[in-house]
């Protein structure tokens, strides 16, 4: 009998998802910190009809958080709509083998056919550690093998075990090592002695880097310098590259316009669709640059340190240290970050983290910030002097907006902890993984996948939004001709929201673009482009809203909850409408008031 449904179970950050990707050819997210996978993911074992299921990491089978509950429920065969597991690949990290006897004992006691995979063979050898998998197999009466999921070594034995006929007479002799008959007791005794385990030497790189990265003063400063440098690259390299792309696409649209006959169709294709698309595509290089930075930080193991730094410097606001990993991942997108809060055991801390996650600057805000900063903030050095050129005013403004979001999150956390979510902050312990050279494959896949998500968003949601905006700006028809700008449906919507826009210094196109931003934040760029009928709407906006309005718009955008996808996921994860509604109301009022104050202060300062 061959296995049909195989589960990957094991502690966090041991390489389960890396193995899953190798077995199935899929692209489950892999990163060097604990708690990356928070829900199950199924895939087909390559070349077969068998199902492999990747699970969140667990330290014991007594779950203490939502993600761990998922892993244990599936192991117990109690997950609705999912077949029972008929085999388990129990994955552990060979460089930390001394930590796993409890989990190994608990999993084997379930009596499912199990193979123990000791992963990270490459790192174990490199750091001069040792383990004898056959001796472990003999001790546990369980097939055991040493693998490297990242490099693909040792995988033959795994495939053989999965392929083999598991009727009692046909079990593979080498790996059998005593058969699968006698499962060990819940605690498997001293496996390290039985397996002649020699712990690997400490990673000298990790020690050297951590001396600086975890330093109470130098650590946060280095972190800020690194981010400032990343923003500088975004403005110096990615922005010009993106603008060149937009210019090229804009020219292409103009040329196509001269070929097409001068009909309504030409207006729809060139003005209604193409200009908006060309303007937003120019921000792809910046988004990719940001993802490159985030993926390198995650896969190198730095993110776990950033969480420690954040906990030390910001834990005083009452946030649980465990909140910082999801919050840091919200710099990419709030949706997976809110799902990552499943790893936080305390419900109260989890809800607090969900409520503040959308303040972190997600990648969809990036194009809008870049557009406004490039149009309004002069491209000059931040300070005079020989080193002045290293950091520009534009990069510093971008950093300021990221910090504004963070500050709003922390103040909100403080408010929550002193009102509706009072209570003791729980202690924070985090596993600090060894630093690893980020894998080129992980980075490349993250960037390719991100480009696909962005391009799909542009080709679907943003394109449709653009068309809707364009039509609303030209309807109703009068005697078969489009409306004058002032009498279109959009103009009427504009006049309705005008009283709200005026106190913030926004004009109608900005107001309309903020409405479309509810569907997709990035669409502010393409909506402005469609309304101004230009691939570079920033230049025209400069003449319309002035510096005070632009600063207010940046602050509004930093703080407002303009993302239906996030609201939907908050509803799902908290299982109530109360939280998303409260969150939406609070963030909108905060954004409005902060933008109003910014506008008035900027006017007073004659900016
Ligand atoms: N050197 C080395 N690194 C590996 C190996 N397998 C995985 N890794 C790295 O280990 C880290 C964790 O890998 P994941 O596959 O995300 O681990 P996981 O067990 O799924 O983690 P969670 O989802 O958090 O439970 C990543 O940085 C991987 O690149 C390996 O065989 N050798
Ligand atoms: Mg995983």
From TrEMBL:
Keywords: Membrane, Transmembrane, Transmembrane helix. The keyword Transmembrane applies. The chain crosses the membrane at residues 212-235, 273-297, 324-344, 351-377, 397-416, 453-473, 545-569, 581-602. PROSITE patterns: G_FEOB. Pfam families: FeoB_C (PF07664), FeoB_N (PF02421), Gate (PF07670). Residues 3-168 form the FeoB-type G domain. PANTHER family: FE(2+) TRANSPORTER FEOB, FERROUS IRON TRANSPORT PROTEIN B. This is Ferrous iron transporter B. It comes from Terriglobus aquaticus.
